[in-house]
Amino acid sequence: xxxxxxxxxxxxxxxxxxxxxxxxxxxxxxxxxxxxxxxxxxxxxxxxxxxxxxxxxxxxxxxxxxxxxxxxxxxxxxxxxxxxxxxxxxxxxxxxxxxxxxxxxxxxxxxxxxxxxxxxxxxxxxxxxxxxxxxxxxxxxxxxxxxxxxxxxxxxxxxxxxxxxxxxxxxxxxxxxxxxxxxxxxxxxxxxxxxxxxxxxxxxxxxxxxxxxxxxxxxxxxxxxxxxxxxxxxxxxxxxxxxxxxxxxxxxxxxxxxxxxxxxxxxxxxxxxxxxxxxxxxxxxxxxxxxxxxxxxxxxxxxxxxxxxxxxxxxxxxxxxxxxxxxxxxxxxxxxxxxxxxxxxxxxxxxxxxxxxxxxxxxxxxxxxxxxxxxxxxxxxxxxxxxxxxxxxxxxxxxxxxxxxxxx
Length: 408
Fold this sequence. Notes:
Rossmann fold; single chain; 12 strands
């Protein structure tokens, strides 16, 4: 079977799909991942075929209207990229939350089944506010109303791109949001790649929306940490990881100084990940790293300080280590609040309020109060019983079987 998996966004938005693709390939399927060009090495390292999508996912500045215009322009380019990626053909489309509104049109034109494979909960529910709404509950009615409003805003962002794409694919014109409504009416299946230990399936979700557990970025489990890392880890007690992933570009100097000061105040060693911010520090009790799989590094840490992106949040919990979340934007306050609610993290420090003093205080608590590690360990054990990629595989194969004609 030929499977086209399409995802777009920052590293944390796309890297988990390399592990999902590798699982599907191991089951005998031909898997193509369509992502930005910068992720081609990750895709090919997983033994998968790569096809490029437009790369500019930066939102820019200028207020909400400018953000909307920037996002709308990007998704118009994304639609054209998806058409090119699908041109060689596919038997099924797997779509991330970002690519789904465009992928629906593609699946209709190709007359092939599709599945949602989301890393965040996007459907309205009474149980929590939309993940991009800052993580603060507005009560049952308010949460659901705001969730519906968020979907209408997403339809507005995608409207021109959908119209362009349908014209390009020779599909009839439709009213804004009508394709989404049709998908809901037909119970279009969405499998969510996060743990029920972190976000239980909301009781008011419709049939077809399931939480199946994480799928993880692909890496060779036999690949050891480089000798430099092993030497540093053996030279003293477990250090603290500090990294902000794709966030905080241009703030490396300030954040590096702040991180070093906090570590010294707390009497802890540290591993700083450069990331987009460009963190950098030197010293006997400090190590700066670039790209190292979290699955290899996090289990060796005393705690992890991060921006609370979905992927990094999950990786820390999988490792069973406590966190100090420093959310920046988008869905990060939601995941930070979940971490704290589970008892696996200290109270989040909003990025704009981060100081060396506050970080040092939270570091001391996370490392020295056993309850945080115990809570993280309990979630880790729950996550270990889940097989998100395996559930996607079952759903893909079941959906393909249902579409095959019954022979006479």
